[in-house]
Design a protein that fits this description.
The chain has helices spanning about 5-10, 50-65, 95-110, 125-135, 185-195, 210-220, 245-265; strands at about 15-25, 35-40, 45, 70-75, 85-95, 115-120, 140-145, 160, 175-180, 205, 235. It is α/β, with parallel strands linked by helices.
Length: about 280
């Protein structure tokens, strides 16, 4: 039942134990603040898997039966069959209404903090990229000129049908990403020009080749300048190390590229801490 939403799990399993990774030192599967819920016959979330998680589940279920420990210090070494080499401290608490509300609020806040990735175009690669990004910490928006191209997108995506997708560039939140994959190169260039003119976007990428990049550079010159913006354009998207043009492969490479870029931008302390009081 790990695929249930948190509210659905809490409704179905109000008698649960909150397992929180309070401290994570050295090499560990997850960071401090990660949590999971354990009920008698179901689990929501994960703290990293392996023997370390099995021990946590066993202890949480012992607590549900009146036993167990409130705190466990677990070294991730050969004594428990893991080789991470780090050290973890787990805290266990019965789930209360207040804790449930706090956890739900925290997840809502995390969703609100997700960077927006706007896909211009929903062809084969756009569809594959939307499916690849939806499970990741991004809010995905797809912009199209063709109504039928929006039909098979994941339900979690925001969909916008417009005759002028280039105008939508201004609606991308600061810190967002613009990925350009339309069926029309002239439209690609127009969208890219507007996206590159915004200095507050974290990523501007366009599907294509080195030849397309050179063509776009010449187009910028004919349009009266803007060549200085070109270094900010990622083209081709997904890098050049893997030469595979299948949509699902391109989508995986671009998803990894975005995760790397946003991880580098993340400078604030983790927001995933569960209050200890």
């Amino acid at each position: 039942m790990r695929d249930l939403t948190l509210p659905a799990f809490i409704t179905a399993h109000s008698k649960s134990i909150l397992v929180e990774l309070r401290e994570a030192k050295g090499s560990t599967p997850r960071e401090a603040g990660t949590f999971m819920l354990v009920a008698t016959t179901a689990i929501w979330g994960t703290i990293g898997g392996g023997q370390f998680e099995y021990m946590a589940i066993d202890n949480a279920r012992a607590m549900l039966s009146g036993g167990g420990e409130a705190v466990m210090n677990i070294p991730l070494g050969p004594e428990i069959g893991q080789c991470c080499g780090g050290h973890t401290r787990l805290a266990f608490r019965p789930l209360t209404r207040e804790l449930a509300e706090m956890l739900e609020g925290r997840l809502r806040a995390e969703e609100d903090d997700r960077p927006t990735v706007t896909l211009f175009g929903s062809g084969h690669v756009g569809q594959a990229l939307a499916r690849a990004l939806v499970p990741l910490p991004f809010a995905v928006t797809v912009v199209e000129t063709r109504a039928e191209a929006l039909e098979d997108l994941p339900a979690e995506t925001q969909k916008h049908l417009t005759a002028m997708p280039e105008a939508f560039v201004e609606k991308i939140p600061a810190g967002g990403a613009a990925i350009i994959l339309t069926h029309d190169h002239a439209l690609d260039f127009l969208i890219a020009q507007r996206a590159l003119a915004r200095t507050d976007l974290a990523y501007v990428g366009m599907i294509g080749s080195r030849t397309k990049r050179a063509t776009f550079a010449n187009w910028l010159k004919r349009e009266g300048g803007g060549e200085e913006l070109l270094p900010r354009l990622v083209l081709p998207i997904g890098g050049t190390a893997v030469r595979d043009k299948r949509p699902a492969v391109i989508a995986a490479l671009v998803a990894a590229e975005l995760l790397e870029i946003y991880a580098a931008r993340q400078e604030q302390p983790s927001k995933r801490q569960v209050p200890t009081t």
